[in-house]
């Protein structure tokens, strides 16, 4: 089969509930389109509250048996799932490119990255330890054990349709939880394909359930999970306003939440930085997925002594970036996800120019390529009065801010309600120590633009959310601690 045929073979258009592919109970469906062309890929199930409840019912029935399995048995299932994901890596990459738009090579990289979380948590399943508490009274033994929290509802975004859902489902299953999930309305097909492979790997019926829903129906479907006391945890990646809504609405049943929310990442280039490395790091951090990532640098602060040189070096590299559809092997940046995204990018550029910014390269739509393309852009003379300074652009736009002193850079970087990622480049070891401690962020890149790893804790502070994904810490949010006190031993 061709790569396109392999991808088509993975497409599922219905919900997956209790081991079965079923349409939405209402019969409604919604369109999933290719962002590069706007053409229809397939119509998928448009789920509401009754579908969400059916998924929860299945997860509740499956929970006792799954949580009772030995950790090594759960690990074996996850390892088989990991193997199937890697075996179908090219087909999954093609499917990601089709519905999300990122270039094929980058999409395949996402598959490998997402699969790494499955493998990591397969191993972590066998490392869920408790504690024996030192004896405090004669005749008593005290201990603490970790147990699966219960049913987990996972809600994921469109920008990484495989990696985001894999790094939520994998730790939940490893911990012994069952899952109900809803991917973003723009990119449900990759998640549905991933669930298909999980079923093939031997995940029991009801342990993993996934529903698709349009933008309008999502509120109804998720509201059912928020109100259902059987759902003990919500894990969400997306915008801060939606995260706050989930926190408010889940308070009635006091669910545990993991929220990976919006960012406004600063990228600082000090005058003692290796400028070649800084440019390369910025390109990697900013233009991955066309700037549509939550850890993308949104504000680039460059010290005055190297500002002009850095801007010239950056513009030369950005102007060489190839924009095109995922079907073109030469493409480095694909389309934005939809027209709303392009409109926001254009609005930010226009607002910046109106407030004194200079377009150094790019700065325009690329309508000749298709409906959702925008040129990689560098803006000079950015200022804090511009919308892009306080709003996440989520596109291929680099605004350059000038600063003079280290403290100015730190103050400007922290002057935001968000605190997900920060980056800085310097070769001064004392400065590295000072700045890394001063930046208010859950993740700090020091002379490095690529941060994510399954072995590292991923998450933010302030209004970027709480909880961590990946690493040994990533399992904690799916477990509760039970204290056992046994008396009468003497």
UniProtKB/TrEMBL annotation:
Signal peptide span: none
Active-site residues, Swiss-Prot/TrEMBL: 260
Residue ranges constituting the Aldehyde dehydrogenase domain according to the UniProt record: 21-483
Pfam family, one: Aldedh
GO molecular function: succinate-semialdehyde dehydrogenase (NAD+) activity; succinate-semialdehyde dehydrogenase (NADP+) activity
Enzyme class per UniProt: oxidoreductase
GO BP: gamma-aminobutyric acid catabolic process
CDD domains cross-referenced by the UniProt entry: ALDH_F5_SSADH_GabD
Gene3D superfamilies: Aldehyde Dehydrogenase, Chain A, domain 1, Aldehyde Dehydrogenase, Chain A, domain 2
Assigned keywords, A-Z: Oxidoreductase
Assigned EC number: 1.2.1.79
InterPro entries for the chain: Ald_DH/histidinol_DH, Ald_DH_C, Ald_DH_CS_CYS, Ald_DH_CS_GLU, Ald_DH_N, Aldehyde_DH_dom, Aldehyde_DH_Superfamily
Family under the similarity heading: Belongs to the aldehyde dehydrogenase family.
Protein name from the UniProt record: Succinate-semialdehyde dehydrogenase [NADP(+)] GabD
């Amino acid at each position: 089969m061709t790569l396109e045929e392999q991808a088509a073979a993975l497409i599922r258009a219905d919900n997956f509930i209790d081991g079965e592919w079923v349409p939405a109970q209402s019969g409604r469906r919604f369109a999933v389109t290719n962002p590069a062309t706007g053409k229809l890929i397939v119509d998928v199930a448009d789920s509401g509250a009754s579908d969400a409840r059916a998924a929860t019912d299945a997860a509740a029935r499956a929970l006792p048996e799954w949580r009772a399995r030995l950790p090594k048995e759960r690990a074996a299932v996850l390892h088989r799932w990991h193997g199937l994901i890697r075996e179908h890596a090219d087909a999954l990459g093609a499917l990601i490119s089709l519905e999300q738009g990122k270039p094929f090579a980058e999409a395949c990289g996402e598959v490998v990255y997402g699969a790494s979380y499955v493998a990591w948590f397969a191993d972590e399943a066998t490392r869920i330890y408790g504690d024996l508490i030192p004896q405090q009274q004669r005749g008593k033994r005290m201990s603490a054990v970790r147990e699966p929290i219960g049913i987990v509802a996972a809600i994921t975004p469109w920008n990484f349709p495989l990696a985001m859902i894999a790094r939520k489902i994998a730790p939940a299953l490893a911990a012994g939880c069952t899952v109900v999930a809803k991917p973003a309305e723009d990119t449900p097909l990759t998640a549905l394909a991933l669930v298909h492979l999980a079923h093939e790997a031997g995940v029991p019926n009801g342990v993993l359930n996934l529903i698709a829903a349009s933008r309008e129906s999502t509120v109804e479907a998720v509201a059912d999970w928020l109100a259902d006391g059987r759902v003990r945890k919500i894990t969400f990646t997306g915008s801060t306003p939606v995260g706050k809504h989930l926190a408010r609405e889940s308070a009635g049943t006091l669910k545990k939440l993991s929220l990976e929310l919006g960012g406004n990442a600063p990228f600082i280039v000090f005058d003692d930085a290796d400028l070649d490395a800084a440019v390369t790091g910025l390109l990697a951090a900013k233009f991955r997925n066309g700037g549509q990532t939550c850890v993308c640098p949104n504000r680039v602060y460059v010290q005055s002594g190297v500002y002009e040189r850095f801007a010239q070096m950056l513009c030369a590299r950005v102007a060489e970036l190839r924009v095109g559809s995922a079907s073109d092997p030469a493409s480095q940046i694909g389309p934005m996800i939809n027209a709303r995204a392009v409109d926001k990018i254009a609005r930010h550029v226009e607002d910046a120019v109106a407030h004194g910014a200079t377009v150094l390269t790019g700065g325009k739509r690329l309508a000749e390529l298709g409906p959702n393309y925008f040129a990689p852009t560098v803006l000079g003379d950015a200022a804090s009065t511009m919308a892009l300074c306080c709003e996440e652009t989520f596109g291929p736009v680099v605004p350059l801010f000038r600063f003079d002193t280290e403290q100015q850079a730190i103050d400007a970087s922290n002057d935001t309600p968000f605190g997900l990622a920060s980056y800085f480049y310097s070769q001064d070891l004392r400065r590295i120590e000072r700045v890394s401690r001063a930046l208010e962020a859950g993740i700090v890149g020091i002379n490095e633009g690529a941060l994510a790893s399954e072995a590292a804790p991923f998450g933010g502070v302030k209004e970027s959310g709480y909880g961590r994904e990946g690493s040994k810490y990533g399992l904690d949010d799916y477990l509760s601690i039970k204290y056992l006190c046994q008396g009468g031993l003497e």
